[in-house]
Amino acid sequence: MSVRNGLLTLLAQGPSYGYQLKAEFEKRTGDSWPVNVGQVYNTLDRLERDGLIQQTEVDGDGHVFYAITAAGAAAARSWLTDPVRRGTAVRDELAIKLALAVTLPDVDAEAIIHAQKVATLGSLQELTRSKIAGGDPDTADEFAWQLVVDALIFQAEAEVRWLEHSEARIRRLRERGVGIARPFGDPSRQSADESAIRIASTGGER
């Protein structure tokens, strides 16, 4: 989710000014995504440039109010109704780190997994304590906040399962005597790559 779509959706509820939008955005997302006023006004400038909102009035305190346009309302509806696509362009730093670690001969991938699991379990405990200490779950603000906390809890639980799965796979490979680590510039791999290049450059002639 982008702050842009969040602000646009809030403006679909009625005209508002920058600081109001910042406060509403943070309140409705359970303070899980703090934004600064400068970011809000930069986003409003871009939305206005794109014809999705427009300035309407200035109140006695100098607040500039913004209202959504028809194009903006359509964009807000589209964002709300279209599924969130988690494409392959999203890079998972932890997965990439482990993928590299298991191929490096001088790195203990299991130690990395253990350290990550301890950290993730710690986060999971904090999230669970925070949820238990929450307020009345029947209020709108609390319910919105708990939705975000639940999502973070499920993500942490899934990460722990994936770490345990990866740890077990590494252990099985080691028990079978399979070595997956290789030095940088593995001669056997380099030889295979060079052969492929030679074949491609000669059209397959030997």
UniProtKB/TrEMBL annotation:
<feature type="domain" description="Transcription regulator PadR N-terminal">
    <location>
        <begin position="7"/>
        <end position="76"/>
    </location>
</feature>
<dbReference type="InterPro" id="IPR005149">
    <property type="entry name" value="Tscrpt_reg_PadR_N"/>
</dbReference>
<feature type="region of interest" description="Disordered">
    <location>
        <begin position="183"/>
        <end position="206"/>
    </location>
</feature>
<protein>
    <submittedName>
        <fullName>PadR family transcriptional regulator</fullName>
    </submittedName>
</protein>
<dbReference type="InterPro" id="IPR036390">
    <property type="entry name" value="WH_DNA-bd_sf"/>
</dbReference>
<dbReference type="InterPro" id="IPR036388">
    <property type="entry name" value="WH-like_DNA-bd_sf"/>
</dbReference>
<dbReference type="Pfam" id="PF10400">
    <property type="entry name" value="Vir_act_alpha_C"/>
</dbReference>
<feature type="domain" description="Transcription regulator PadR C-terminal">
    <location>
        <begin position="90"/>
        <end position="170"/>
    </location>
</feature>
<dbReference type="InterPro" id="IPR018309">
    <property type="entry name" value="Tscrpt_reg_PadR_C"/>
</dbReference>
<dbReference type="Pfam" id="PF03551">
    <property type="entry name" value="PadR"/>
</dbReference>
